[in-house]
Amino acid sequence: MIVKNEEAVLTRCLDSIQQVVDEINIVDTGSTDATKSIAAQYTSRIFDFPWIHHFAAARNFSFQQATKDYILWLDADDILTIDNQTKLQQLKSTLSTAVDAVSMDYHLDFDEQEKVIHSLRRNRLVKRQRQFQWIGAVHEYLAVDGTIINSDIAICHRPLSHDAARNIAIYERLLEAGEAFSPRDLYYYANELKDHAKYAEAVDYYEKFLATEQGWLEDCIHACFKLADCHHALQNEANAIRAVVRSLTFDSPRPEACCRLGFYFMEQHKNQQAIYWYKQALSITESTHAAFRNLTFTTWLPHLQLCVLYDRLQQYALAYEHHKQAKNFSPQHPQILHNEQYFQQLFSSDN
């Protein structure tokens, strides 16, 4: 782990992992709170690394401290549930030494019932002997190859706070130094600009990223969606929908693209066209090992919108069926609760 001022979350993280791993290595990059004293309750293997505004450098240093056959990496605001602790213990007892890396789910967002709605996969466990390297000053990634297996183990991301200015400051420091941005850097810098409401600049960098034609497929598709959001914020709806359609030039339609197209037609009261696209979103079956998964676009959201669309067409039985499906996935969503009352009144008046 690399840490800095993580006293609020570090105990939670280490409690969830200490009985599963054989060694804990913590690299501190300049904490001024109780982080190091908390870490000392779990391990004596605490190392200092002066912060040089480069995450990959810090992570590579942390990997150099490991002495066991495999390295598991975590962030301080990550945890393993008891179920996933058990799965990791089982993996340790059965893992073939021929395996170079193990990917795990990374659960990022949860709904009101603590169901996972947004996740991605990351290579979390790697063979130390292979000396895999982290790359990138910010939004760094671990470059792995060889024999990689997909596990059903999940790491839960549970942040309590976020330093919103940290990443964009690192990118701006690199720009000032004349650093050449990789396609990945262009994409993630555009994301930071968008998150800071610098929409016109974000559009410029998303276009630069896409113009390289060297980006990862999923990043290219999501760049189109983010471009659409920027154009919407800039009140350019024509360019926004063009950006969504552009995502279709990279691969088969993603559920999010279908939902965005459905909403475009829904706003124009082109109900049949909207129904078509929301049904398309529901028809797509995503692999459980997909790089990115946002279940919003394959569960309650298209059902909620189909409920509204069929209600517009006075096809109340169909509308109610989709309402029940939406409710099954997200029973506490305010709009779904509103629709529940609506249908109760509708059906009581029919009687």
Structure description:
- There is one protein chain.
- With 351 residues, the protein is of the alpha/beta class.
- It folds into two domains: 2-157, Spore Coat Polysaccharide Biosynthesis Protein SpsA, Chain A, CATH 3.90.550; 166-350, Serine Threonine Protein Phosphatase 5, Tetratricopeptide repeat (Alpha Horseshoe).
- The chain is 49% helix and 15% strand.
- The protein is built from 14 helices and eleven strands.
- It has helices at 10-17, 35-39, 55-64, 82-94, 166-176, 183-195, 199-212, 217-233, 237-247, 255-267, 271-283, 300-312, 316-329, 334-350, and strands spanning 2-3, 26-28, 46-48, 70-72, 78-79, 101-110, 116-127, 133-135, 141-143, 148-157, 292-294.
- Strands 4, 5, 6, 7, 10 and 11 form a six-stranded mixed beta sheet that branches. Strands 1-2-3 form a three-stranded parallel beta sheet.
- A hairpin with a 5-residue loop joins strand 8 and strand 9 (141-143).
- Helix 6 runs antiparallel to helix 7, helix 10 (255-267) runs antiparallel to helix 11 (271-283) and helix 12 runs antiparallel to helix 13 (316-329).
- The radius of gyration is 23 Å and the shape is globular.
- InterPro entries: Glyco_trans_2-like, Nucleotide-diphossugar_trans, TPR-like_helical_dom_sf, TPR_rpt.
Keywords:
351 residues, alpha/beta, Spore Coat Polysaccharide Biosynthesis Protein SpsA, Chain A, Serine Threonine Protein Phosphatase 5, Tetratricopeptide repeat, 2 domains, 11 strands, 15% strand
Helical content (DSSP H or I, runs of 4+): 40-55%
Overall, the morphology is globular
CATH topology of the largest domain: Serine Threonine Protein Phosphatase 5, Tetratricopeptide repeat
Measured between the Cα atoms of the first and last residue, the distance is 63 Å
- Report the mean per-residue pLDDT as an integer: 96
Largest sheet, in brief, is: 6 strands, mixed
Strand content: 15-25%
- Name given to the CATH homologous superfamily of the largest domain: Tetratricopeptide repeat domain
Number of helices: 14
For this structure, what is the CATH class of the largest domain? Mainly Alpha
Structural class: alpha/beta
